Amino acid sequence: MDLLTASGMETAAPPVRRVRVLLPLPLASPYDYRVPDDMELEAGAYVEVPLGPRHVFGVVWAVGGPGDNWEAGVAANRLKPVIRRFDLPPMPEVSRRFVDWVAAYTLSAPGSVLRMAVSVSAALEDPKQLLAYLPSGDSPPPGFKMTDARRRVLALMEEDGPPRTPADLARDAACGIGVIRGLAESGLLTPVALRAQPRPPIPDADRAGPELSPDQAAAADALRAAVDARAYSATLVDGVTGSGKTEVYFEAIAACLKQGRQALVLLPEIALSSQWLDRFARRFGVRPVEWHSDLAGAHRRAAWRSIANGEAPVVVGARSALFLPYPDLGLIVVDEEHEAAFKQEDGVIYHARDMAVARAFLGGIPVALVSATPSLETLTNAETGRYGRIDLPARHGGASLPEVTLIDLRRPDSRPPARHWLSPILTQAMGETLAAGEQAMLFLNRRGYAPLTLCRSCGFRLQCPNCTAWLVEHRLSRRLQCHHCGYTDRLPETCPSCEAEHSFVACGPGVERVAEEVAQLFPDARVALMTSDTLVGPHAIQTVIEEVRAHKVDILIGTQVMAKGHHFPMLTLVGVVDGDLGLGGGDLRAAERTFQMLHQVAGRAGRESRPGRVFLQTHMPEHPVMQALAAHDRDAFLAAEADQRRAMDLPPYGRLAALIISGEDERQVDKLARDLARAAPQGDDLQVLGPAPAPLALLRGRHRRRLLLKTARGVAVQPLLQTWLGSVPIPAAVRVQVDVDPYSFM
Ligand SMILES: [Zn+2]
Ligand SMILES: [Zn+2]
Q1: pLDDT tens-digit map of 31-40
Q2: What is the number of the ligand closest to the CA of 498?
Q3: Ligand 2 centre from 698 Cα, in Å?
Q4: Of 13, 172, 281, 310, which is the most buried if we count CB atoms within 10 A?
Q5: Which residue numbers delimit the Helicase ATP-binding domain (predicted)?
């Protein structure tokens, strides 16, 4: 453009157009870039921008305009231009607000949250188009020679059939690619461009679902009404195991599909949920789009694009699925809302259930929180009227609740023999179950052979060199393992402390040791072991589940990986080897979690017409958790638990936030922890506890200290934390993690 007029006066250059781009990096704020003349950008556009010598993707967070005062930042002539914009619909405004909201709530960098929303940057690239062919219907040109191979290819191509790729045709017609090319050159095949990633199939909302009981139908009506209201609401769906909660929220999904909007279901462990996917397919005719960490490259890219394009009608995923940029989300379901797996403990520390409620609020949509053992947090919100509540009392299909027997391990007549772990009461019941041609399950939430290995001569215990943790013996793999950092070692021949030979003995049971005992007691029984060590990947789990369902297994032994919602019709006996496990420790939710887990395990027994029996081995039969389990009185347990927490102002009646200070240099870590304690916020309605060594005072070679901020329920902890952290310089070698609403106290 000619900048000089005829008179030689300089005209004003056109104003530089600026955008503020959020990068997926832990930066304090977005960066400014110049918009090239030939590019149009709006807020939410996915762009590629230079960052030092690199090119990175980012999302336009704001577009400059009159009165934005951005000139106070980088001078216009030093702004770098946006390189290109990706061919995708812009990230919706609600998704961008959600990123900022989560960042502010968790005290994380917005870019770190953005990274969860766009975790597969390769998906931003347009997928390659595939070449495919349709029959042209023309007659062969003069001189065309019809060979057998050419005839076979043409015969494969039906009229009105879908376009087919050369590779596909060559395979089915058993010919070379050259044959296909020849047909195309002679005009008998017409090339068409095929999407490399097919659209996800559309679930059929009108397909007839299973017959609902009156309770289920009423619950489904209530959830449908919430979807049709097209407004924010949060509803607890509280129903005992086997009451058919899934079928109920499927009806809400159907209502959402009829509106043409997207629905999201969050599951705690998606890899374990192929039964869930099958149920979905039975109701809607197709499987939903999955989103989880086991999803491999191309599938992951395809899933992300179909979600961002609005082509994925229903998405089922692990917690990270919440952050995906849905253009028109109409419903969120959080199934098993009480599960600890919804809490992410590294990177951006957040609880997906709580964030799901926030996302629903920002988007003006309903969220359903579903559980047989709701968390105290959610129950309290339902009791105060903040959340709606739907109860599903009965077990669907006439199944009755299992009979729960507490086995008092302190009594001589019910105690297992020395170096054994199963009470004679339990083993007798197992014998009866097997004799009746039914299945039994033993639950012990402890991997490996024995939790502790010590020297018989001097008492030396084998400990992980990187963590405050004992090494766990795994007899199947003949290794000692640290369950926190993955350190492994061989069992030493001589004790490193007293040099006694072959002096190490296993203390206490792990699942492998229980399996050994079962093999001695029931040598003819077919036994399957289900733990994360023996089951690698979702297919391995699926294989065992199918074997149990096909009754190729008599006794199933496992850790919590098998406690999930699997449905085994012939399973009528559940034995809990150590019901007290998990009740110790300084975790405020220990009792609640133990109750939830044991309740879920107990729910495995007798899910169809056969009555179930549950035997719970415990040293504390009088503990409220055990009493509540035996009496099937969940509400009495929760009421007692709530009273206790209320008296101590603990969540959900008060608020907590933790600071975890860690580093390799113990002195530096201690100094920062003390400095932070001195600068701690003060006030009538708050209290700072610590610094104290974390229970895992050493983890992966890093020393760890904890501080805990405890406040009244109404206090906004984020501004307090921000001021607190800003008041103390933090050395580069020491890390401070902020955990708002902590669930782990390790
Ligand atoms: Zn020794
Ligand atoms: Zn370790």
Answers
A1: 999 999 999 9
A2: 1
A3: 8
A4: 310
A5: 226-392
Residue 240 — pLDDT band, cuts 50, 70, 90?
A: confident
Question: How many Å lie between the centroid of ligand 1 and the Cα of residue 501?
Answer: 8
* Number of H-type helices and E-type strands within the chain: 19, 31
Confidence of residue 1 (pLDDT cuts 50, 70, 90): very low
User: What separation in Å is there between the alpha carbon of 502 and the centre of ligand 1?
Assistant: 9
CA of 498 from ligand 1 middle (Å) equals 4
Strand partners, 661: 705, 736
Which ligand approaches the C-alpha of residue 504 most closely?
1
Distance 481 CA to ligand 2 centre (A): 8
Task: Return the percentage of the chain with pLDDT > 70, whole number.
Answer: 94
Name the token pair of 376.
């105290």
Task: Summarize pLDDT for 385-397 with one digit per residue, the tens.
Answer: 999 999 987 665 5
Listed in sequence order, the residues at least 6 apart from 122 whose beta carbon sits closer than 8 Å to its beta carbon are 297, 301
Report whether 507 belongs to an annotated binding site. no
- Enter the tokens of residue 640: 């007692």
- In terms of Cβ atoms closer than 10 Å to its own Cβ (0-12, 13-18, 19+), residue 185 is exposed
Q: Is 175 annotated as a binding residue?
A: no
Q: Establish whether 495 is an annotated binding residue.
A: yes
Q: Which CATH number fits domain 18-92: 3.30.70.1670, 3.60.160.10, 3.40.1440.60, 3.40.50.2000?
A: 3.40.1440.60
Average pLDDT over residues 638-648: 88
Q: Which ligand is nearest to the CA of 453?
A: 1
Residue 264's SS3 state is strand
Question: Which one-letter amino acid corresponds to residue 122?
Answer: A
Written out in words, the top-level CATH class of the domain with range 214-392 is: alpha beta
DSSP state of 245: H
DSSP state string for 53-80: TEEEEEEEEEE--TT--GGGSS-GGGPP
Provide mean pLDDT across the span 492-510. Answer: 91
Distance 491 CA to ligand 1 centre (A): 13
Tokens representing 449?
Answer: 């052979």
Say whether 131 sits in a helix, a strand or coil.
strand
Identify the bridge partners of residue 576 per DSSP, sorted by sequence position. Answer: 443, 616
Confidence grade of residue 174 (pLDDT, cut at 50, 70, 90): confident
Alpha helix (H) residue ranges in 522-623: 538-549, 590-602
Q: Centre a 10 Å sphere on the Cβ of residue 44 and count the other Cβ atoms it contains.
A: 18
Instruction: Tell me the C-alpha distance between 457 and 498, whole Å.
Output: 8
Closest ligand to the CA of 501: 1
Contact 380, 652 (CB under 8 A): yes
DSSP secondary structure string for all residues of 40-55 = ---TT-EEEEEETTEE
Q: Does residue 256 have a known ligand-binding role?
A: no
User: What gap in Å lies between CA 433 and CA 605, rounded to an integer?
Assistant: 12
Domain boundaries, the chain: 18-92, 131-195, 214-392, 403-451+508-644, 654-740
CA end-to-end distance (rounded Å), the chain: 65
CA distance 535 to 513: 17
In this chain, the answer to whether the domains covering 214-392 and 654-740 adopt an identical fold is no
Tell me the helix, strand and coil percentages in the chain, rounded to 5: 30, 25, 45
User: Which CATH architecture describes the domain 403-451+508-644?
Assistant: 3-Layer(aba) Sandwich (3.40)
654-740 fold: Alpha-Beta Plaits (3.30.70)
Instruction: Give yes or no for residue 4 having a pLDDT over 80.
Output: no
Give the count of alpha carbons within 13 A of 199, CB side only.
8
Ligand 1 centroid to Cα of residue 484, in Å, is: 25
Which pLDDT tens digit goes with each residue over 287-331?
Answer: 999 998 878 778 898 999 999 999 999 999 999 999 999 999 999
Q: Please report the pLDDT score of residue 739 as a whole number.
A: 95
For the four alpha carbons of 697, 699, 703 and 706, in that order, the dihedral sign comes to negative
- Does 482 carry a binding-site annotation? yes
**Cα gap 155→175, rounded to integer Å:** 13
Evaluate whether 275 touches 226 at the Cβ level (below 8 Å): no
